[in-house]
Amino acid sequence: MDLSNRVQSIPSSVTLQVTARIRELKAEGKDVIGFGAGEPNFTTPDVICQAAIASLEAGVTGYQAVPGTIPAREAIAEKLRVENNIECQASDIVISAGGKHAIYLVCQALLDPGRGQEVVLPTPAWVGYRPSIELSGGTVVEVPGSTDRDFKITPQQLDEAITDKTTMVIFNTPSNPCGTAYTPEEIRALAEVLAAHPEPMILSDEIYEKLLYGGFEHLSFGSIPEIADRVITINGLSKSFAMTGWRIGYTCAPGPVGGARGGLAKAMTRLQSQMNTCITSFTYAAIEAAMRDADADVATMCEAFAERAQVIYDQISRWPEVRCPKPTGAFYAFPDISAYFGRVSPGGKKIESAVDFASALLEETLVAVVPGEDFGEIARGHVRLSFATTVEQIIEGCQRVEKWLTKISSHSAVGSA
Ligand code: GLU
Predict the structure, then answer these.
(1) 147: Cβ below 6 Å to ligand 1?
(2) Is residue 37 within 6 Å of ligand 1 at its C-beta?
(3) Are residue 359 and residue 389 in the same domain, yes or no?
């Protein structure tokens, strides 16, 4: 019996592979420093945990409505109206098992194999988009952002990438893995281009919206009237509320798809009814608490991330022959390490790729980073560091990398002299 071509065609998530390896090494008692998964090192705020505990104690243990309970969807819709200026109501919201599942449902609802549908994806982009698109039958069209522009694409690049085959355009700001964000003006300029192309849907993944540093402001694509009825806003509780293990994501799809307002939300609900029914029953109360009562906790975590963004940037700036845009959002740094390709690590390994770099680094210094390849063609010379860890770990880990790189640099210098 063969496995399906579909399942054989996708790699497993590299971010999760690195994280699993960190876990194994730690279990073996190794002093590993993990810059792997984008997972806050905080526990979930107490006010949110208490809401779930109370719900569990009140006996909320049965199946719930497929797209989520009305009060939880109302709390999300209210948040989106008040904080994001997105016109929506509870019936436009579908709650799913994490942002990743929400994105997969959107792709399944909009794409078919064999129809030649394209999805425009600014890169470097998170490793999860391509598999969701391809599993659904779509083709990815990468639009590369350059290191010099903080990895952001220009309106002209967007305009050139959209064709009559474009079914959807994806944005993710603040960005995983880039750690940078578009300004409101830049978003408006991209929206102008999108307004001139009335067909494609626009998926805006805003899971890092609250994690912005250095005065950056977030603007939701779904708040821009000219395009709002085609914007699908994805968000979730994992990152801002330190709730990765709870698996809570949501989609807001207020516009007309298939001729009806909320058509996409209904289609996703049908799919979800055949996949996992609903998310865990007693977490809906936690969603309400997160939407309404956790602002102070989020602000505290955000302050910590802002400090770490500065620390990791200062540290990486000391690495020889490495360029890295300053992190202004999310909790990632995405340095260009391609100057080391073609060289040999202190432990004698030939470095030809980011995968080689990351694996030699882990073996020789016990520092884990995510290699860039799966974030897009343009990302092949990069590695991702998640700084959702302590300042002490950031400094220790970055210093280990610095020493390691210095050895390669000085060795090459001697060799070429
Ligand atoms: N989104 C996080 C990351 O990029 C979690 C792992 C994943 O889903 O890729 O590290």
Answers:
(1) no
(2) yes
(3) yes
